[in-house]
Each structure stands twice: as C-alpha cells, then as structure tokens.
Amino acid sequence: MRSLLFVPADSGRKIAKALASGADVVILDLEDSVAPAAKPGARKLAAEVLGAARATAGPLRYVRVNALDTGLTGADLDAVMPARPDGLMQPKTQGGKDVAELSRLAGGEIPIIAIVTETARALFGCGSYDEAGPALQGMAWGAEDLSNDLGAHSNRDAEGRLAEPYRLARTLCLAGARATGVEPVDTVHVNFRDLVDLDAECKAAVRDGFSAKMAIHPAQVEIINRVFTPSPEAVAEARAVVAAFAAAGDAGVVAIEGKMFDIPHLKRAEKLLKRAEALGIG
Q1: What's the CA gap between 131 and 136, in Å, rounded?
Q2: What is the tens place of the pLDDT at every residue in 211-250?
C-alpha cells in the first residue's frame, strides 16, 4: 500500500468520492472526523459500505475505530466487524499492548495499523510494538493530537517546517516500525491545497524510509501514489545490483559502471524489488 485516505464515515457523498479516488486504502473514520452524536449513524453507514464492497472491486476498506480509553471501541467493533473490513486503524496507541488488546477485541484475525505518536506518553512506547502480536501491519505517526497534548502553539516553525518534537515523533515511528518489521506510514499533509509541498513531503518520506502516507483529500492521492511507487530507473538499478551479486558468487562488493555496491546495497535492492512486485510493477 502507498496511499491511505481518511473519509468521515457519516458522509455517503464523501465516501463515494474516496472510493473512486484511486487510493490503495480508504479508511472509514469513526473517530475524530465524526461528532459524538453522529457516531451511531456513522457506524451503520460504515457497515453498509463494507457490506456492499464485498461485491465490488476497488480499494481496501479499513475502519478507524475510537481509542480504547474512550469506551466507544466495543460499539465500533460490534457494528463493523460483521461486515468484514479489510483492516482497522487504531488511534492513540501507547504501545504494543494496546494493539494486542484491540486484536483480541476484534477476534484476532484482522490487520491493524496503529497511530503511535498522538500523545506525549506514546512517544516512549514506540519501541514496544514487538508486543503487538501478528495483527500489527503498520505504524503511523501524527502531529496534530500530539501538539495538543504537549500544549504547543503550533507543530511547525516560522518557515513551515516541522518543529523538533514532531521531527522526533516522525523518527521514532520510522525506527519503531522498521525494528518491529512492519510498514512505517507517514502522517497527513493538512494543507490539501498545497500539492507542491505535498510532493516535496512525500519525496522526503520515501528518502527516509517510509513506505506509505496518509491523506485527507482525494486530490492528494495521485501524488502520493506516484512518489511512493518505485520509478523504472530505481527498479532497473536494483535489478542490476542483484544480478551483479549473483554473477559474482560469494562477493561482498561488486562494481557496476565504476560505482561500488556492497551488501547493504544488495539488501536495499532486494527490498525495492519485493515492493515493486507487490505493487505489480514488472
């Protein structure tokens, strides 16, 4: 997966647009984008959308449930699990044990993507997700709720760059995901009209090791999908590296057109080719 698009689960119109956006994953949101009074109706509509999806092609359909400490998670699961979502997104996790608990409540057989940096306490749990169990599919980070929990006036500096606490959260999520062996997912770009900055943010995320990005508007999906798809040039180079090592036998270093490649380059090339294959790139 490359793009994960949030959509309020109480808006049939927005859900239809999200499903037609080209996103790899559409996340029917029962949490922050739905007012408390609207949550029962959102649960019902989400279940209807999930049920209808069984007969149609399209993106994966995940549901973002409410956090465990809200007392609302059980009602969310009761409403949507019979309709068999493709996965769940779990907000405001404090560590791997929270994911294990949601997995238990959901029946233990559904992928979960955890948002792991939404509170100050959660930052200290980013290295604990090996306790989550096999349900954990990815770890995402977020800056908006974290800035509120930290009492910050803004999560960006005067030049629009992430302030230091949020750069730390981003790094902890990336390192925690890779250490756990799951996919790291970059946060949303909140200014959905600034597609130039979104493009730059996506390229920085790919450079640093993220494999997907969340979105809040259908207009963001095309850029995310394009940037997070390995380019033909990158795939060709990866194939050349793998082929050179295969031809060299038990070598630790190979040379291709005057450039040296060692074992870390080989492992990186193998990962890129595996991702390209998963995305259907020949």
Answers
A1: 10
A2: 999 999 999 999 999 999 988 888 998 999 999 999 988 8
Q: Which amino acid is at 191?
A: N
3-227 under CATH 3.40.50.300, yes or no: no
Is residue 4 within 8 Å of residue 32, measured between CB atoms? no
CA dihedral of 67, 70, 75, 81, whole degrees rounded to 10: 10
Q: 134-166 pLDDT, tens per residue?
A: 999 999 999 999 999 999 999 988 888 899 999
Sketch the domain layout of the chain as residue ranges: 3-227, 232-278
How is the chain classified by DSSP, letter by letter? --EEEEEETT-HHHHHHHHTTT-SEEEEE-STTS-GGGHHHHHHHHHHHHHHHTTS-SSEEEEEPPPGGGT-HHHHHHHHGGG--SEEEE-S--SHHHHHHHHHHHTS-S-EEEE--SSHHHHTTTT-GGGS-TTEEEEE--SHHHHHHHT-S-SB-TTSPBPHHHHHHHHHHHHHHHHHTSEEEEPP-S-TT-HHHHHHHHHHHHHHT--EEEESSGGGHHHHHHHTSPPHHHHHHHHHHHHHHHHHSS-SEEEETTEEEEHHHHHHHHHHHHHHHHTT--
**Residues near 157 by Cβ (< 8 Å), separated by ≥ 6?**
163
